[in-house]
Amino acid sequence: MEVLMIPIHAKEQHVDDLIREAVLNAKTTVKSEPGCRRYDVIQDENDSTKLGLCQIYNDMGAFYEHLSLPHYQRFSQTTKNWTASPPEYAKYRPVFPLGDACWDSQRPSAVEDDAFDRGLFVIHAPIKVKDDHVSDFIESLRRDAIGSVNEEQGCLRFDIYQNQEDRSALYLYEVYVNKAAFEYHRGTPHIKRWVEEVKDWYAPGFSLADNKDKVVGANVWPPDNWNWSAGKPNR
Questions:
Q1: Which DSSP category does 120 fall into?
Q2: SS3 114
Q3: How far is CA 223 from CA 5, 51, 107, 117, 120, in A?
Q4: Helices 60-68 and 70-79, interaxial angle, to 10°?
Q5: Helix (H/G/I), strand (E/B), else coil: 164
Q6: What is the pLDDT of residue 214?
């Protein structure tokens, strides 16, 4: 899998325009490109100008093909002046889940109805770790992820991605059935153990709570009744 996690800071007057175009591009990509497994669009609940994209491709060839297609070219040209700064992306690889995880979002039989819009709660968060604690941090986070997807009915996925060029840069992508399920998650034993274990392993100056690129909020697209679950992976 090739994963791209992209935080976007939209100009306030162009938020709705950017969302419209992002959804159009995402929908066209997932439905017409066999090499694209997911193209999720998330909006922050407290700052509507903050969006997060999660794109998952079979390989970089599929991603480069995506960049050459007319719908992406249209999206790129149309939205280039609608962001506060040019969006930056890095290539990530999955750390968890692996093996039998479900990556596909598309459900061709899903009913299209407004009732299925924006019901989920998603965490789209970059993390920077001390170089000498990367392996320990990942293992601790993996244990938390296994507990989350296997013991919490409200946790649909808990993905951990690692930057391919900077091993100390990680990304969390968590999906819950609603905000209440996330609050439930925060009270579980596995998250409490993780918080205590990793508290001194973050890179100097990094704060997960204050990170400007973190996006926490609802799914803009795809809708709730597409496939968001990774299953019950244990590795």
A1: -
A2: helix
A3: 19, 16, 10, 5, 9
A4: 70
A5: coil
A6: 97
